[in-house]
Fold each of these.
Amino acid sequence: MFTGVRFITFIIAFSAAIGPSAAAHAWGKTGHRVTGAIADAYLSDAARREVAAILGTEDLAEASTWPDFMRASPDEFWQDTASPYHYVTIPAGKTYAEVGAPPEGNAITALARFRAVLEDDGAGREEKQLALRFIVHLIGDLHQPLHTGNGTDRGGNDYAVTFYSEHTNLHRVWDSLLVEHEQLSYSELSGWLMRRLTRERVASWQQTDPVVWATESAAIRDTIYPGGDREIRSAYIFEHRETVRIRLLQAGVRMAAYLNAVFAEPNLGTAPAD
């Protein structure tokens, strides 16, 4: 049984051993599906037709988790090339313009790459499926505060905490434990959240620049480290629950706005499609 400093030392050593490819699955399956379900409701008619032409019967909720599932593939693309696509690094006190992207790329450069595929009339359907699934996933990633890392702890993966006495790390808390604590399915949670969307709120969330999303996440990130004994219980959940819900809602609304822009109808409606 690990306790105190010994446990924290073990977590850091273990995290370094498994490497960055195991690091980040933003929002977990439930959270990603919530963002996809919200986006599905706000697609323009043109975007809905294009999504159906690319994905067939697969909706955005189903597509949203595919890039994480494929990280188990031994293919070089999934093991090496695509690994950095899931996160951005913006150190505290810096802007993205100041630090830019590393040579291997990040979530922001990957979004640009995959958007270009969707806009390429010469790209094949399989290429567009890969691109669309990644776009859906990465927009979710960029709205999870710890997917904009500070460059010191692998987005909270090396920051050991306990969640109701369970030894874990802060990244996992924000990826999945806070969402799972709701004990709701993705369809239940997305439905509850969408009932809170007003025309004014949707209109205010039309920002489709991923640098803005990452900058927002960096600002939130710097407020969510628990400090002290690093014990996360009901008080922490009470303090941050609304942030989790707003970021899921923003990711879904902005995902629709982004796809509507890609598919030539940039003006997102202010109510879900029937």
Amino acid sequence: MGPGRLSRPIVASALVLGALAVAVGSASAAVPTAIRCPFDPGSNVRATCATLRVPLAHARPRGRSITIAYTRLHWIPSPGAARRTPAIFLNGGPGNATLVPIAPLGAISPALRRADLIFVDQRGTGLSRPRLNCPEVARARVGVLERPGDPVSEARRVAAAAGACARRLRRLGVQPGAYNTAENAADIDTLRRALRLGKVDLIAPSYGSALAFAMIRAYPGAIRAVVIDSPWPLDKTGIATNVGAFDRPATPHAELLRLLDACAASPACRPTLPDPRAALRAIGRRFDAAPAAVGATGLDGRRLALHVSGEEMLSMLARRPSTTANLPGLPALVRGVADGDPGAVTSLVTDWVSGYARTPLNARNDIGMSLAVNCWDRGRGATLAGALRYIRRRPATALDVMDGSDLACQAWGGPRAPRSFNRPVASRLPTLFMSGEFDALTPPAWAREARRRFPRSRWVRFGGLSHAALYSLCGQDVASAFLAHLGTAPSTACVDPLGRIAFTPRP
């Protein structure tokens, strides 16, 4: 298998970043200030790292300001090569750091580095200041397993933690309502103008696609072409969106089942898990009757004694297809948990806990920024009472709802987006939509629906991949080919067929 067919994610190293620092004062001219790059770009890449002061609220350019940090990887053209359009990478989350975990990906990827490539720690995240972290919420979400109770009581504790975080941030001078996708988009355009880039390409996975949609609507003349990977359209709102593809009235774990059914249809994998539905029912019965006792290390290094029910196990398993690296071993993991194998149970639970300290690419996620964006962007009408009613009707999704924003938005407070913000976006810009066939967070159906309003778009589905195809070498090759040859179908020679995945057999 050649390098273009590799589909495993590229994992970059993590860096422990500093604590929250509030940047206040009046906005000044948009002049970048150089900083030391927080990663080694290598000897073959020239990188510029800097911060840029931007208005806290772009409607009040002379008011308070904040800083955003960015990295520019400079393309070194061969003699006589034509100038190429620079690209801005819009990271996911919302709330994920970018400069530390993702910018090195551009430095080592020939496919992504076809032109100057700019990475941004979006407002509220990473090296940008202030940084909206919420350890209160992370502790509360993990704490529902440390101090088990009925799902409604647990959900109330998580909502209260969100309110406590919002109050702490406001005491520090932060205005959480100013951290949203509309202001985020204005930041990116301010950076584009400060760097005198002219038109740019946008490369946008996951939440970055929501930011790209907002930029397409607000700044269409600043954009040449767009790559939208694992799209999250702006019109997808409410609890069902935050729970994602896990929420189906008849089968709450539809995406998990679709992957497990692919195993059952494979002669090599079928002996591992011949009846996926029976295995999931067995997990529910076994651990609802006697919750698993699992020891894990908490976010503060403290040793935790966790108690995990069957429904919570199923919620954790339903998260697994959101990362491509988890797909091959998932049937064997389900079989191990169904059989009560202590190693499988411990692996599942500890990985879920560690997810609050990192993202799949070892980035830090600033939960406060995630709540601020989601509550402004999509939280209109979200109430604690409504979220609790949802949990009572669908207890199997309780852990997922607690991990979303709808439950917390009322306690978080602040303004909400106008209704016009959540209308579907339409554009004639050249656009590539990309989807992993087993994406449990942003289902491929969302891409199919969104591209109907993009008459100059193409759509590539990647067999054997999950969320964020751009983190595979094949996804980078396809995106690069599209941007290099607008108007023609990008080569998909590296894309694996749908429904084919090399499952890891059970030991």
